[in-house]
Write a structure and sequence with these properties.
Blueprint lengths: L1 H14 L5 E4 L7 H9 L3 E4 L9 H8 L10 E2 L3 E2 H10 L11
Parallel strand pairs: 1-2
Antiparallel strand pairs: 3-4
Length: 102
Amino acid sequence: MREASEAWETVKKLSAQMDVVVADCSASEETTPMLVQALDLSMGVVLANKKPISGPMEAFITFVGHGPLFRHESTVGAGSPFITSFGRIVAAGDRVEKVAGV
């Protein structure tokens, strides 16, 4: 854990000098505090797993509340991007009456 802590300190220092995007390829909730801190420091965050945002609603709201620094997507069916497609439907003015899934 010490090595990870030292690496994180290096990333934070670099973010003051350049744009930084943190990519979390883990499937762990343990990275959530660092990811939130990255967003608070205006770093972009990319997740390869839904774990950090699939717990309490507060965690999801914290991530999504950082706007363009945190993007998310989900796929359905044959890999169709649901969130982007749904957003475009609503933005076009169409009324969505029901969304269902498993």
